[in-house]
Amino acid sequence: MRTLCLLSLLLPAFLCAQVPLPKPDLSKAPPVISVEPDLPEGAAGFPVDVNNYENPLLLFQGAKQEIPMADEPSPDLLPPIAPYLPGEKVPEGTPDKPLTPDELRLRSLGIKIVSSVVGLRVWDSFGTQLASGVGCYVSADGVILTDSGLLHPEIAEKIDYITVTGADGTNTKVSGFYVADLTSGIALLQGEDTDTTPLELKADTDFRQEQASHVLAMSEKRGLVLADATVQMDGALTGLGWLNVRGKDSPGGVGSPVVNDAGQMIGIVAMQVPLKSWMNFALPCDAAAFELRKGRAPLKPLTSLPKSPKLRDVANDPEFVRAFETLQKRRVESAMRQFVTLARKYPRSAECWALLGLSASYLGAAPEALNCQRKAVALDPKAGLYWHQLAFAKLREKAGMADDTTEDKEALELATEQRPNDALAWLLLASRRVRDGDLGSADDALKRVMLLAPNYAQAHYLSAYVKGRQKDYEGAQTAITQSLKLNPGYSEAWYYQGLLLDKNGDPNEAAKAYRNTVRLRPTHPNAWKNLAYALKKGGKTSEAREAFEEHTKRSAKK
């Protein structure tokens, strides 16, 4: 799929300023170290030049767009959970051992609901699979509840039939539908099997406090997959009624039921962020319960599935155009309010969520931006630029002392995989690999950066750091010289230059480099002290004493 690029790349200097690098350790030799750069001063968020963004209305020319639908969860992301259900083949080599209380609880719950959960696959007339997900019976005569995203208008006109796979491997078809509403997220289908065991819907559940739950998926490869999770209402401004579902395993797919300990359905997964550090977005089952209570609409054939709103319809909506123009004019607070309205109107539009996240980022609301970018990549996982934005939002959140996860690294790897010419994503990935101690992979990423953007001073600086850690001091000197040539005002590069010169036994030149550092950044945590040591080695005792007094004075203010 060709991605709709509504976001532009950020300025390299500001991107690099967000990248946490290892803290200096002056007690070890050789002193080839760096410090964590500060964020840009006076920035409410990070600077974004919306005037350089591609106008989305120009991207709908040519071939018709298709949105990617949720694939069956990868077995690599779904480690087998014990115990295995009765009748399920146990892998060879599985040791016999008594079941723990948690395993017994899961097995009991699985046996109770196994016959109610089904796998759904959407096909065109040529036998090509268009989408796949999960559903569950909610009536005794075969009504299936699933997420309406499986029947998105972008593919609706191609849908020929839908297959239903039970936990016992039997296959039937869907004979029609009652409701398919993207706004509420509800799709009610009629299955051919009219003697079914329904799940009980528990409406009016209070999600204000985090509570234990369980997420289910039906895989043709593995059968029923069940795992523990937690669920809570998203209280953020951009939450908009969604539920956050988290857990250690990620069996859920689009349409997966979220159930409580009693086996009652309390929510339905609508979006799945395809990461190992997984997170699903779900909707309460209240809307589905309401649809079932008010009586069924007439059964309609699949050919009558809603054909709008498609991607083109969203981008051509005058409200969308106005919001985009508002953002271009840097009226960010107003633009954010407009995109909140659009996200309510088009909750399955990756573009609306991405631009809402961008507005939040511009205002410095990192958690809000992260919330939105997760939804954007869940809806359009082939959009490398959205992965870029997700990674950057996560880095901003981590700068605020959020829990460290692998989410930013995974997002950057996906961004560079899908956008191999994204120099800034490669640079951020290189920095993350440095922090992980993976210097060889970091060096490979930096080579890609310098091939794509040879004038990035930050890339040469980071390359010097990597080479220094690898004890290639000659290479480090070459890289730091190039960094300073490209940006003589780069204080961190001057500091690193001082370290290299000091190691090479040239304290006088090292002192000059440290003086440039403190001139450009008087609050540098180590430059004054290093300057004092270099001056002392050079025989300039009085100047060394002054520099050390300055270091002591600044340290006392912290």
Automatic annotation (TrEMBL):
Residues 540-558 have a biased composition (Basic and acidic residues). Gene3D superfamilies: 2.40.10.120, Tetratricopeptide repeat domain. TPR repeats lie at residues 491-524. Keywords: Repeat, Signal, TPR repeat. InterPro entries: Peptidase_S1_PA, TPR-like_helical_dom_sf, TPR_rpt, Ycf3. Residues 1-17 form the signal peptide. SUPFAM superfamilies: TPR-like, Trypsin-like serine proteases. SMART domains: TPR. Residues 539-558 are annotated as: Disordered. This is Uncharacterized protein. It comes from Brevifollis gellanilyticus.
